[in-house]
Design brief:
238 residues
């Protein structure tokens, strides 16, 4: 913290403050003759020093004010994609499902606080077979830190409510990664936090023949979702 300026020596000399000023060449309290011209003396050096301290204090106060208004921004290692479906591939998930994903639809938004992009895909309808759908959301938080709200609750859609009691973590993917299960089965959600970026991938499956969720190898699907998420994050790296 910048305090009062320290001045070497006392101000009271044998002749007082005025005497100290007279001892300075061309002191500001006096004028002297120089070739018939009256020359004004130089300013006291300590006044220059005091001015520097005041200026430094003003700059420091301004810096603190700016930092208060604009706190540290989250780390963003990924770029915004206006058309996320062009970046998003479900090659490994498609292999586990045994189906090809299509019907791609993208959406995106840009603001001062956050950029986001979204993609939804699904498999083609075939009567009597398992159908799959997938949604991907990428959020780039440019001001607030998303960590405090990351994976704090289930989804809001009653049809796709998540069972947080079955939530489990994933290592080696971003700063933090979590899996959720659907309450009624038939879907999983993978959430990844990496700095100020949040990636959410949801994969659903259901049997069109009886309208019920089908049975798949969830462990294999989990591994496939992680693999495709890692590929996407690599592709979006700055």
């Amino acid at each position: 913290m910048i305090g009062e300026p320290e001045i070497d020596g006392g101000w009271e000399t044998a002749s007082g403050a005025e005497g100290a000023a007279e001892a300075l060449p061309g002191g500001p309290e006096h004028e002297r003759e120089n070739g018939g011209e009256r020359v004004r003396g130089a300013r006291r050096p300590w006044l220059w020093a005091l001015g520097g301290v005041v200026a430094a204090s003003a700059v420091w106060a301004g810096t603190l004010a700016v930092q208060d208004r604009f706190p540290d921004v989250p780390r963003l290692d990924y770029r915004h994609s206006p058309d996320l479906c062009k970046e998003f591939e479900l090659g490994t998930v498609g292999q586990v499902a045994g189906r090809e994903f299509q019907g791609r639809e993208s959406a995106e938004g840009v603001s001062l606080a956050q950029d986001w992009s979204y993609c939804t895909v699904s498999t083609e309808y075939q009567e009597g077979t398992m159908m799959y759908g997938a949604q991907l959301l990428v959020e780039l938080h440019k001001k607030g830190d998303p960590e405090t709200e990351f994976a704090t609750g289930p989804g809001t859609d009653p049809a796709t409510r998540m069972n947080t009691d079955e939530r489990f973590g994933v290592t080696g993917l971003g700063d933090r990664a979590m899996f959720d299960r659907y309450y009624a089965g038939g879907g999983s959600r993978l959430m990844v936090l990496d700095g100020g970026s949040v990636f959410t991938l949801t994969v659903q499956w259901y049997n069109l023949k009886d309208g019920q969720s089908g049975s798949i190898d969830e462990s294999a699907m989990d591994a496939a979702m992680i693999e495709d998420m890692r590929a996407l994050m690599t592709k979006l790296e700055r």
